[in-house]
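Exercise 3.2. Students should predict the tertiary structure of the chain below and write it as structure tokens, then compare their answer with the key that follows.

Predict this chain's 3D structure.
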Amino acid sequence: MSQPPDQDVPVVAIVGGTGALGRGLAKRLAAGGVRVVLGSRDAERAADAAAGLGPGVAGATNEDSVAAAGIVVIAVPWEGHRETLASLAGALAGKVVVDCVNPLAFDRHGPYAQSVAEGSAAMQARNLLPASTVVAAFHHLSAVTLLDDAVDSVDADVLVLGDDRAATDLVQSLASRIAGCRGIYAGRLRNAGQVEALTANLIAINRRYSAHAGLRVTDVCSRWG
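Answer key:
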């Protein structure tokens, strides 16, 4: 059952929110009481994507969604990552920016991680957004599972990486708003590269076994989540 919007939780904008992962995150966060604004270059497209995702979800342009939010999730395709962040750098100043972009490519052998000069998409974001606090998270959640009305609880942990403890705590708490999920601190932002790359392995697993697998971290008590 969805919770009513919690006014004590910051509004979350999802830039690139009209994609499957953006819509899936919006749906689950809204069900957990979070107010969400889907961002797109086209406001009408964003409003259409937000329809039916829950009473706490709205749509707007990327710029307007960022202006309305305290936390901003970046869920754009890797190909548009640098351009999008550079264009929004001023609007993102002073905000917690959660990067969930995976720099992957595909060929006839399947998915593989791409080389990123900065080391990871998250580190590229940090370089492009010096006035923002960048956190990496939400890389391994299945968009199919998030959008599936038949799935009441998402059985997965969310690895959260960053250099600012208050920001990583905030994003861990946000992740735990998704039913069945738990936010787990997984290290400094410099370690985001291998977390992003692991998504290629998960895609390969899912293709091989016709699954929508995520990750669970063992031997971490829930009180430390």
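Discussion points: The domain at 12-224 is CATH 3.40.50.720 (Rossmann fold). The CA atoms of residues 30 and 56 lie 5 Å apart.
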